[in-house]
What does this fold into?
Amino acid sequence: MATTITIANEKGGVGKTTTTVNLAAGLAIQLAETAGPSGRVLLVDMDPQGHALLAAAYGTHDVAPEQSLAAVLMETPPPSIQRMVRQGDHHLNLYVLPSNRSAMVEAARVLPTMMANETRLMHALQAVQNQFAYIIIDTPPNTGDLLVNALVAADHLIIPVETSYLGVSGLRELQNTIEQVRLHFKPQLNILGYLPTLVEEQRSEVREILDQLRQRYPKQMLNPIHKSSDLAYAHSSHMDVFSYRPPRQRSGGQLASSSRATQEYGELVLHVLQQTSR
Ligand SMILES: Nc1ncnc2c1ncn2[C@@H]1O[C@H](COP(=O)(O)OP(=O)(O)OP(=O)(O)O)[C@@H](O)[C@H]1O
Ligand SMILES: [Mg+2]
It folds into this structure.
């Protein structure tokens, strides 16, 4: 059975896609030596913008609607995900579900009028549960059925948080949505952690907000991801940061992280592996 992790925050531009792409790639790297399904990772991009797919599998962000994730959400019965899944560009064991922007926008519009509108992704993913170790889901920056489907399908959530006053106060709305999902669909839905992103610790207001977050979520705070040009450049080069900045070979053959960004996302990957091992 795959472990499904959704990266969510209704606020825009907080590092959801960057976290999705680098977590999925980092897990694929860690599992690369494991044969079969327990070594495979699937990335699902529920954001119509398709930015996670741009970085993970460039040719799959605008395929024909009937071969895309939107068809999985809208058709009854859904088309076979097994046949739709494609390999990503940078890692042999990282796969994606192709998407189509306008079909996903249409899905967001039409889903509220359909039966079982909140559980369609969860049910469709059941068909591939035995083919992947991890399913990592990116979400759009708004409330709606695409986000709700991604929450209902998840076992765990990672919530990237921008370290600003608005970033922290905006979390309440997401927490209400999570409570609704637990009440109606998934009582066991776990918040794996709050991930401070785009952190500039030299600014005193950022340090204050980090302290506030640590007080509010003492057990669920993840180590911060600092602002780093490598992450922005990797994204604009359509790559995860591990492919953009491959590890350096040390004398003695050991591998070392080549930048702060690979170090920090690498630690997140190890933490996730540890927290989700069964
Ligand atoms: N730690 C970081 N350091 C520098 N730039 C970053 C970092 N994290 C994200 N970015 C950049 O900030 C922008 C927003 O990040 P990202 O796209 O991951 O956010 P998002 O929450 O997915 O946004 P949206 O809500 O629009 O989907 C992107 O241009 C990305 O490259
Ligand atoms: Mg995004």
